[in-house]
Amino acid sequence: MTTQVADVEHGHENGHGPATGITRWLFTTNHKDIGTMYLIFSLVMLFIGGSMAFVIRAELFQPGLQLVEPAFFNQMITMHGLIMVFGAVMPAFVGLANWMIPMMIGAPDMALPRLNNLSFWILPFAFTMMMSTLFMDGGGPNFGWTFYAPLSTTYAPPSTTFFILAIHMMGASSIMGAINVVVTIVNMRAPGMTYMKMPMFCWTWLITAFLLIAVMPVLAGVVTMMLMDIHFGTSFFDAGGGGDPVLFQHVFWFFGHPEVYIMILPSFGVVSEVIPTFARKKLFGYHSMVYAIVAIAVLSFVVWAHHMFTVGMPLAGEIFFMYTTMLIAVPTGVKIFNWVSTMFRGSMTFETPMLYAIAFVILFTIGGLSGIMLALAPVDFVYHDTYFVVAHFHYVLVPGAIFGIFAAVYYWLPKWSGKMYDESLAKFHFWVSFIGLNLTFFPMHFVGLAGMPRRIPDYPLQFADFNMIVSIGAFMFGTSQLIFVYVLIKTLRSGEKAPQRPWEGAEGLEWTVPSPAPYHTFATPPKVD
Amino acid sequence: MLQNVRILSVLFALFPAIAWSEWEVNMTRGVTDTSAAVFDLHMIVFYICVAISVVVFGVMFWSIYHHRKSKGAESHPFHESTSIEILWTIVPTIILIIILVPATKTLVESYDTSESDMDIQVTGYQWKWRYKYIGQDVDFFSVMTTPSDEIYNKADKNPNYLLEVDNPLVVPINKKIRFLFTSNDVIHAWWVPALALKKDAIPGFINESFTKINKPGIYRGQCAELCGKDHGFMPIVIKAVPEEEYIAWLDERKSLKEKEASASQKDWTMEELMAKGEQVYNKSCSACHQPTGVGLPPVFPALKGSAIALGPMDDHLDIVFNGKSGTGMSGFGEQLSAVDLAAVVTYERNAWGNNVGDILLPADVEKMKGGK
Q1: Which member of A363, A452, B91, B304 lies 3.0 to 4.6 Å from A399 by CB, making a disulfide possible if both were Cys?
Q2: Is A83 inside a domain boundary?
């Protein structure tokens, strides 16, 4: 994909730079500014959610109750999940989309810039409201991030209404962001950039955006039903009035399963950019990669009840959801084989983004394999709601989603800031994170199989050793993210100047503009051959 | 290194609990045919997953080692091969089918709904289990007995810490048992690893599961679905015994019930009721209303100085007996004996500075129980 260098330096900007002061950020419609705000917001949320994980792991460091009461512990696990999913991972991906999609497809900005501003600025308010519930009478949400009824309706604390409103706001923000991505990609690709020439990151985000538009309204629906049950006397989830608590789970997971792909597909895209760059070789099987993403997205709508194998479904239901879930392994396998083949007979170097991408492939594969085990309904009767599940989904989300984000940040930071990060410090961040992460989540497989249920503030004695190791790993992993912040600050303050294309093997339109990327890029569309 | 050892030994000295730890890393094979089948399936899939990762990671690490730029590797520009892509779509599909055959078989077997030898209804309550032996007139609650001193680290933890109850579920071996699961409040999940049995207990609905235990013994489990504050503190203990022993236990249970009935006819004094009431309160009420009666408002109201505890006796008994719908307060009328109810109401009216001064007699509660 060769291109002509866009002539951004030649006066197409009309001297129209950023405003100054706080209004630049409040009123901005610039995709780069909004992308930056999303990424910073996500980093702040990562630390808030992470400090809640610290509370959880400190309490579980040894048996007995030491630091917090069970009621508060439940609020911590709930908030940790909600903040990490809706506050850290999803906004980080939207931030990356904002920064990169216009530059990768040769567009001057996102298609709907004012909507873009709105979708970001909803978030700080939504999360302030959600976190303020922790200080309300009766405490914040304490029913887990999956908020199963009737624990989240009849038996919930009064602050649940605020939680519902916050979820509505986050959903609205996500839908707006997703619409923006779809409209941008469909309408604003540079001349000559057909769909099948699009960078893989844009493809994964296009599919992600469709998933978001499809399922966020479902989440809005389910929280609205909760609101009705709590305040308006309906009985959607109350058998006493003709409802069904299991209905909640069906509706929730109809949102929830596509949601987990929303949190992983953009990482697939990032890794598909990073591995070819550092292997100095084109991505293997571009077409099958695209088909695999579409297949995963379609299948994600028909597997939701594998989260509910123990609710007492009929045999036919169990078999259906077991088979469809297993089917997802096929396209996912194709992707992993493609990444490995891209590395095969390449000419590899191992800069930090590549390290994160390789760790992603290895650890995501482990998470995927434990996913195959969980898909088997009869064995899931044992795995379900244990730490084995906790290990599984953290293996796909932390080294999956979050390592994907780290890979992206290190990969594109020179383009964003115009400066190179400190490679050895960044590698240090990688290795401490990598070791800490495995120390945290690998032993969880063992305690889960040995019989430790999830979401408990205290545990029987036979789980003591592994829990202590898990906690030590968690402290290590959490603390290592301070190194990340230090790397970022050091880069911005005193990083060496980055060239236009800092990575030897990098291809794509974003490397045809200077570093740092000017405030407006591709005011005149580039021509893609 | 030496320092690490020293830190570890300090840790071990600090936490005697660690001595009990077993470094258990795998699922139990269990004591039923189903659990053995589940275990075998688990191991088969595990080994298949290990084999897959050896192949995938093998190729990957081999490439990482040999095809690195620093070793002078040059990039080969191939990026497509229809035949190999078809191959690695078909081969995983075949592997999946191979896994699904035994999985489907085990699943179908666990859904064997043929006639059972006995039925037990299991009801989840926040935060205890109730076992009702259908057709046997045996019906009791099973509550965790781990003392709060152990939980709050004021006493050494016993080996069955958090896995001990007052009344275990006693069942005969070699009998097909049908469990009927439901709940009184939120969703719970009844889980005993040794039976490979986990089923949600859902309010307003009944789920069923079957088991046939092959080996006598005591098997322990926990609630597996987040069900509120004390989710971590509602264990399950099953005692599987030979049939004769089970029948003897049933008889004992029934005679216990008669003894309880006669106790309620006795004349109780204030002191006796207060002493008994404190025990009952700490077992059944203090999780929410707290040992000092101050509650955890606004979800769990205080009893100390509350309008109900200081108000008319009938209203007080009514709320304890029938519960309050739409809140976490379940009715204790069926959970507690007349003596326990009378004692706990008396206790709540006269403890922590609530000095109403009146007492409730078990005989009066018996009338209410009879009236229902």
Answers
A1: A363
A2: no
Nearest residue on chain A to B40, judged by CA atoms?
A: A379
Question: Catalytic: which of A3, A153, A159, A173?
Answer: A173
Contact B96 A155 (CB under 8 A): no
- C-alpha B359/C-alpha A513 separation (Å) is 86
Q: Which residues pair with B300 in a beta bridge?
A: B296
Helix (H, G, I), strand (E, B), or coil: what is residue A290?
helix
Bridge partner residues of B201 (DSSP) = B188
Residue B162 neighbours by CB under 8 Å, 6+ apart: A63, A458, A459, A460, B144, B146, B151, B222, B232, B233, B235
| Domain hosting residue A504, numbered range | 22-78+103-512
A261 is catalytic: yes
Summarised one tens digit per residue, pLDDT across range B352-367 is 888 888 888 888 887 7
Q: How far is A70 from chain B (nearest CA, A)?
A: 6
pLDDT of residue A104: 95
In a domain, A269, yes or no: yes
Q: Does A364 touch chain B (CB under 8 A)?
A: no
Across the interface, which of A319, A333, A348 has its CB nearest the CB of B67? A348
- How does pLDDT run across B26-77, given as a tens digit for each residue? 888 999 999 999 999 999 999 999 999 999 999 999 999 999 998 888 888 8
Number of domains observed in the structure of chain A: 1
d(CA A397, CA A393): 6
Question: Could you give all domains of chain B from N- to C-terminal order, each with its CATH number?
Answer: 33-110 (1.10.287), 118-257 (2.60.40.420), 264-371 (1.10.760.10)
| CATH number for A31 | 1.20.210.10
Q: Which residues contact A428 (CB under 8 A, 6 or more apart)?
A: A483
pLDDT value of position B7 = 55
Catalytic residue among A36, A133, A152, A174: A174
Instruction: Measure the CA–CA gap between A521 and B160, rounded to whole angstroms.
Output: 66
A259 counts as catalytic: yes
What is the tens place of the pLDDT at every residue in A157-211?
999 999 999 999 999 999 999 999 999 999 999 999 999 999 999 999 999 999 9
